[in-house]
Amino acid sequence: MAWVLLILAGLLEVVWAFGMKASEGFTKLGWAALTVVAMVASVGLLGLAMRSLPLGTAYAIWTGIGALGAFLVGILVLGEAATPLRLASAGLILAGLVGLKLASGD
Q1: Where are the membrane-spanning stretches (predicted)?
Q2: Which residues have CB under 8 Å from 96's CB, separation 6+?
Q3: Residue 14 to residue 10: CA distance in whole angstroms
């Protein structure tokens, strides 16, 4: 169950990252509110997941899901560049997340 909570926390990190961009510096109230709610929920779920997962693993996976998710949203939704070097770098992050999961023994 901790892994499910951690994945949900990471996905909410993607939501708040996108919401922060869409809020245009917290000037759009609806997006700003979504951002704050997603932030609180994301950190709350991370805290619940950390009850049984190691700190280093949980935090790295959480930030990695957020980083990769925000990267993909940037490309797919916001039209950011998908250059070979950017894609390869994201692939390295993904490989690190898989390695952490495999090394966790859970």
Answers
A1: 27-47, 59-79, 85-103
A2: 60, 64
A3: 7
